C-alpha cells in the first residue's frame, strides 16, 4: 500500500501556530475519497494516523528549609521533633520536574561560632524529569541546553525570554547556596544573582523517567546568629518538544452502498 502525508491548512509543519494552555483550534484536512474503481466497488475500512509535535516548557519552584544544627540539638534536648516542611510548585504540561534532598527534607547549616558544628554541612539535591502524559518526548530525550550560561547567570530574565527558542534544562540556585554538579552532564556559573546550571549533554528518558545523574552538592552559607532556620528557593525549567499520536478509523463506501 502507499501512504500519503497530509498537512493541515493551519498549525502544520510549515505553518506552526501558538496555543495557550487549554486553548483549542479547529484543524481541517482536505481529503479526497478514492473512486469506485479504485476500491473495486467494495466497502473498505482503513485508519488515519495522526501525529502532532509541539514545543513546551515545564517549571518547578522548590522551597526547602535551611535548618540551623543548633536548633536540631535544642529540640532533641527538649524531646521534640523538627516540624519544618518543604514546598514544591510544579508547572503545567506533561513533563514534570521533581527534586529531593537526599536522606532529608531540609538542608543543614550552622552559625559562626556554633558550639555544635563549626562549618555548614553539604547536602545532595537530586533532580528527576518525569513524563506524565500520553505522548512521548521527541527522540526520548531532553536536548542539551542552548542557554548562554554566563549571560543567564548575570541576567536571570534571559531564561524566561520568549524571544529565543530554548531547549534543555536550566536550574537556578539562590546566592546563599554554593553549588557544584556531581557529574559532567551539567555546568554551572555563579554570580551575585545566584548560580545557574544547564545540561551540557542530552538527558535520556527511559520508561518515562530520566536515567542520568542529576545530583548537585549544595553548601549553604552561615545562618545569622539566633536564626533557627530560613528558606531557600530553587527554580528549575525544562524546554522540550513533545509528540502525540492517535488513530482514527475510516470506512469508505461506494456510492450505491450508502
Characterization of the model:
The protein has 258 residues and is mainly β. The protein is built from 2 helices and 15 strands. It has helices at residues 69-77, 149-154, and strands at residues 44-68, 87-90, 95-101, 107-109, 123-131, 136-137, 141-142, 168-173, 177-181, 186-191, 194-199, 203-206, 209-210, 215-220, 229-252. Strands 1, 2, 4, 6, 8, 10, 11 and 15 form an 8-stranded mixed β-sheet that branches. Strand 12 and strand 13 form a beta hairpin.
What secondary-structure arrangement, pairings included, does this model have?
Elements: E1 44-68, H1 69-77, E2 87-90, E3 95-101, E4 107-109, E5 123-131, E6 136-137, E7 141-142, H2 149-154, E8 168-173, E9 177-181, E10 186-191, E11 194-199, E12 203-206, E13 209-210, E14 215-220, E15 229-252
Parallel strand pairs: 1-4
Antiparallel strand pairs: 1-2, 1-15, 3-5, 5-14, 6-15, 7-12, 8-11, 8-15, 9-14, 10-11, 12-13
Task: Write a concise keyword list for the protein shown above.
single chain; 258 residues; mainly beta; eight-stranded mixed β-sheet; four-stranded antiparallel β-sheet; 2 helices; 6% helix; elongated
How many beta strands in the DSSP annotation?
Answer: 15
Q: What's the helix count? A: 2
Structural class: mainly beta
Helix content class? under 10%
Shape: elongated
Cα end-to-end separation = 25 Å
Low-pLDDT sequence parts: none
Order of helices and strands: EHEEEEEEHEEEEEEEE
Brief overview:
6% of the residues lie in helices and 43% in strands. It has helices at residues 69-77, 149-154, and strands spanning 44-68, 87-90, 95-101, 107-109, 123-131, 136-137, 141-142, 168-173, 177-181, 186-191, 194-199, 203-206, 209-210, 215-220, 229-252. 22% of the residues are buried.
Amino acid at each position: 500500500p502507499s501512504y500519503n502525508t497530509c498537512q493541515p491548512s493551519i498549525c502544520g509543519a510549515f505553518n506552526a501556530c501558538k496555543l495557550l494552555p487549554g486553548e483549542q483550534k479547529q484543524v481541517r484536512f482536505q481529503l479526497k475519497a478514492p473512486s469506485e474503481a479504485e476500491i473495486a466497488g467494495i466497502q473498505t475500512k482503513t485508519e488515519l494516523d495522526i501525529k502532532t509535535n509541539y514545543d513546551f516548557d515545564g517549571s518547578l519552584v522548590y522551597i526547602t528549609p535551611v535548618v540551623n544544627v543548633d536548633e536540631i540539638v535544642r529540640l532533641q534536648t527538649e524531646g521534640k521533633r523538627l516540624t519544618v516542611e518543604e514546598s514544591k510548585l510544579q508547572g503545567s504540561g506533561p513533563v514534570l520536574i521533581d527534586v529531593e534532598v537526599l536522606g532529608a527534607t531540609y538542608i543543614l547549616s550552622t552559625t559562626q561560632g556554633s558550639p555544635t558544628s563549626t562549618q555548614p554541612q553539604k547536602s545532595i539535591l537530586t533532580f528527576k524529569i518525569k513524563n506524565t502524559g500520553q505522548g512521548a518526548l521527541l527522540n526520548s530525550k531532553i536536548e542539551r541546553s542552548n542557554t548562554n550560561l554566563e549571560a543567564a547567570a548575570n541576567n536571570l530574565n534571559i531564561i524566561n525570554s520568549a524571544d529565543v527558542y530554548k531547549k534543555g534544562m536550566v536550574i537556578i540556585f539562590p546566592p546563599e547556596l554554593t553549588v557544584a554538579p556531581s557529574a559532567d552532564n551539567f555546568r554551572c556559573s555563579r554570580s551575585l544573582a545566584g548560580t545557574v546550571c544547564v545540561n551540557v549533554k542530552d538527558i535520556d528518558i527511559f520508561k518515562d523517567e530520566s536515567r542520568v545523574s542529576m545530583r548537585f552538592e549544595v553548601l549553604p552559607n552561615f545562618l545569622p546568629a539566633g536564626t533557627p532556620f530560613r528558606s531557600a528557593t530553587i527554580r528549575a525549567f525544562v524546554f522540550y518538544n513533545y509528540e502525540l499520536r492517535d488513530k482514527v478509523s475510516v470506512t469508505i463506501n461506494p456510492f450505491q452502498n450508502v
